[in-house]
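Hi L., both proteins are below.
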Amino acid sequence: MSEPAPPDDSTEQHRALLKSTLKQMCEQTLDDRVDRYLSIGHQQMIGGHHFAQASTECIEIYRDGYFLSALMVSHAVAEGILKFVLERNGIQHGDEDIPAAVADLLARAIISQDCADAFLRIYGSFRNDVHHMNPGVAKVPFLQLAERNIKDLATLEREIFGVTTPEGRLIPNQPKYWDTRPDGMIPVYFRL
């Protein structure tokens, strides 16, 4: 195997220019990023489940101003949480009828009206146009929908993964959504 060629001067110049440009962009957008992040009101701790990292990345890409991507990921995370809630409650529903699944959970008093409304707003936010890049996607107000979806995702997570921490001890409001180990420890996904 041969060694990679050392970078030439043009590569190093390009690297230096890119680094300087990115640094300037970060500095110029820092306040907006912090404001977006703080405006969400997300759960700082959720169960350490398969969708936890995607949920966190959804918040981060919204924070960083990637609104189309945040919209797409918010759809996926909300659907993942919905499937998770259905499974934890032993309810079978087909993937194709999300509104019916949400209505079923609401009728059984498993989720609140606020939570049901949040699920349905996320689902109704141009999901198919965005995921399939249909022509209608050109008219989607990404910034506004991403903001609303991210806040709705926070509503879902607060209801499903809400906790109290008396004396520093984590007590889930709904233990069935947390995987408490035999030793009493609970795996969590923590974010700022």
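That was the first. Here is the second:
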Amino acid sequence: MMKEVATSVSKQTASSPVRLLIVAPSLDILGGQAVQADRLLQRLRQEPQLEVDLLPVNPRLPGVLRKLQAVKYVRTIVTSIAYIASLFTKVRQYDVIHIFSASYFSFLLAPTPAILISKLYGKGILLNYHSGEADDHLRRWRRTAIPTLKLVDELIVPSAYLVEVFAEFGLPARAIYNLIETDRFRFRERSVLQPRFLSNRNFERHYGVDRVLRAFAVLQKRLPEAQLVVAGDGPERSSLEQLACDLKLQNTEFVGRVSHDQVIDLYDENDVFLNGSEIDNQPLSILEAFACGLPVVTTDAGGIPYMVDNGRTGLIVPRGDYEQLAASALRLFDEPGLAASLIQQGLEECSKYHWESVRDEWLKVYSELASSSSKDIESVKVRA
């Protein structure tokens, strides 16, 4: 074992690239973490000082095992076994392990094994926590989540909001913004807004898509020609479709899960972005709306007020208040100058989330962790 450790140190010279493993959902899973991990992976692979690979928390299994992944509950068991086995195989080959994290059972199933196995091998551990449910997660799972989080070397979050949340539990965190690739989206001038509304959130209860549907029912009373496109999927789909029927919504289309190219088209085809979150952090969909020129009307859930400046880059209403959501959306049609200003300021806000703005921060933390990891391993070898 000591020979293996010594060998790993000898390979880590001053001029050698940092070997980085990103542990995150692949794009087979619908959600912001998968999108963010993919964007970061593509950028980091262009950096000569890094050797980067992805270890998906949702590995595709071969042959008959793939069929088992289609069976509820069985899927979780076989996928978890394959995932943990891949951690033991791959983590030892890298210097820094960058682990994406959500909350609750997702935290237990994916980040926790990655943290423990990385700690076992003495690797530099970066936990990239994205969930707006952090406060509730840490309060409910205090005895397990907090000790596990204290094992990581760096806790990175995408917003100042989460820095404050973690500080309340004695956990220091550093904020590095999410990455938005504005060159992959199409900005369209909207000199005259059309009543075409878009919702692009997963169908989870805390994302408040039901509030968007209720707001749209109010909007249609004033704008009978209004249209709503609802993109996304999830456990609330059937109840949301039933709610749309109960509200007798017209011109409302549920388009399901959409690919990246389709999302770009949806932003281009619609004129106003509506978001009804009850719990949230830093939604990529809001940043994408900024990049594409859609004015944003949203609730004040979690970290959203840290990224949307009310009256400057978007309009913010209290959580749960779908009537205010509708009223604020109507302002965009009553006050064309307001809409134009929000669109311009929203586009300018995107500059904070460009690769050029976050690149050096990521490279710095990887370098620090690789250096610290090498020293720790060397000290173990010397003591032995």
